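Blinded run. Sample ID left blank on purpose so nobody reads anything into the name before looking at the predicted structure. Input follows.
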Amino acid sequence: MQLPPLPVDADVYNQAQCPSRLILDRIADKWTTLIIGILSQAEHRRFNELRRMIGGISQKMLTQTLRDLERDGLVKRTIYPEIPPRVEYQLTRLGRTLCGPLASLTQWAHDHMEEVKGAQAAFDAAVRA
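Blinded prediction complete.
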């Protein structure tokens, strides 16, 4: 079986400031995929709604991840001048373009989960032997 070539030279990942590497680091972190997925299911979400839906994320980490996504142009933060203030988050046009690739990765993980678990069990058994 011939694999499709990756679209970039593998050496590009060795460059500390490579734009591809910086973007891949962002979208591959622990929380970004969950946040993008949740934001893709509704027009907008509020901070505490996101925090409840994700579960296990600290307020500090959610704040930082949302700020990073906003800085990258993937998420828009809207503050409404109300008392108490209301803040909502939504995917930008650019953020919505990320949903397809993330859905493909999620589907791959679902399709191959048992195979990966089997490989992990075999590896762990061999290491213990």
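Unblinding after everyone has recorded impressions. The chain is about 55% helix and 10% strand.
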